[in-house]
Amino acid sequence: MDIINQLRLVQERIDRANKDNHEVKLLLATKTVPPERIKIAFKAGYTLIAENKVQEVKEKFDELQDTPHTSHFIGHLQTNKIKELLKYNISCIHSVDRFDLAEQLNKRLDRELDIFIQVNTSNEASKFGVAPKDLTELMKKIDDLEKIKVKGLMTIGLLSEKSEKVRDGFKLLKELQQKIGVKELSMGMSGDLDIAIEEGATIVRVGTAIFGQRTYPDNHYWPI
Ligand SMILES: *Cc1c(COP(=O)(O)O)cnc(C)c1O
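Above: inputs. Below: predicted complex with pyridoxal-5'-phosphate.
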């Protein structure tokens, strides 16, 4: 994959979908991508990256330090990995889906941390994310944690060929965002970023459309 060219194509998709010209950040989902390839994107000016696994954050950390960049975390996070993750200068976690996790983060932090609450918008029992009906209560409880700042909501779109069903999930996340009064919407990946932006995404998380196919299937990273 020619990363520079792919970045240009993805940026064109973003601009085309962004009809009302709101701010849309392109976050690079860099799981399985080696540092030297990530740095090609850095050189092109794309410096917002995220990993799914603490181990991969750790492995790439040193090699990426010579270029200023911002690191988020987008994977399912086990509480016993929090301490390790916080060593690596992560500025935002997109995948907080339970109070226990937020509480443990708050306890371990010596600074403020931005988070997104991950919502299960597709009603699939196996997926991570808080159920929409439980969001308000979770939000209220997390609001009491002084170091945790809820910036927005995140969802993984339904993996479906039926774009109207995918769109319904994004519409639901937007409604929930307005209801609870947060600013950002982290939604949209390689296959569905166009729809996500049309429905108001402020951050899209893109991997394969930039770096090419991964050797691991997606269910290595989240249950589908
Ligand atoms: C890998 C990943 C993405 C990007 O997926 P692509 O289909 O490769 O663009 C987005 N969000 C999460 C949580 C991911 O794990």
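The chain is about 40% helix and 20% strand.
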